Input
Amino acid sequence: MSDSIVVDRLTVRRGHRPVLHGINARMPKGSITGLLGPSGAGKTTLMRAIVGTQKVRSGGVTVEGHPAGSAALRYRIGYVTQDNAIYGDLTVERNIAYYAALYRAPKGAVKSVLAQVGLTDHAGQRADRLSGGQRTRVSLACALVGDPDILVLDEPTVGLDPVLREQLWDDFRDLADDGRTLVVSSHVMDEADRCDRVVLIREGRVVADETPAALKRATGTDDLDEAFLTVIRSREED
Ligand SMILES: Nc1ncnc2c1ncn2[C@@H]1O[C@H](COP(=O)(O)OP(=O)(O)OP(=O)(O)O)[C@@H](O)[C@H]1O
Output
């Protein structure tokens, strides 16, 4: 499988603090990579570097053979941030239509993503009157409507009920099976099990980059939470 995203000795400082310390990772085309790690580990910073909105100090990220942030990638990456960059004074449908126009999406795309994220019944509602989970789904719809090759999703399932969470992971799988590359951050280890690979980040360093099965095998446990703790403990003993 060829790599869609290659992170090569990436070093980032934010403020005056080093946040990523020369990390390497590869994300195969047509797969889901989960970014896992404690709060503040550097997951969002890595995602920003992949999307090309993060100033890097050294090393870099290549996406589909182009340096991250290149004009050639502009319409090929969908990014959902944690703070739901949607317009509160527009309806759900208008928000998505705005991105549809930006990405020159085909007619019908807005309706189809509305259904995909389960918001058809809220199409006419102002975005600032939605719940947190609904807002997250609008952001996701905005990213999906352009039919991007690469989707970078920062904790897309926070605040969602288990049924919708399950549905979205099924959608993510379909998108990957269609050849798209997904990078999804999460705090929830049971979601890591739905990924093809998991990249565990701690204090700006990659402590594991494996398939969930290999990670479980290597740590002798079936529980990914436990596997993560085992990896961290073994690192601390080194
Ligand atoms: N604008 C900023 N200026 C300075 N430091 C920052 C800034 N944004 C984030 N940081 C720091 O960079 C580090 C990594 O943050 P990042 O948001 O990448 O972590 P994260 O793993 O995504 O965390 P979370 O799971 O809580 O979202 C943290 O120590 C954070 O305090």
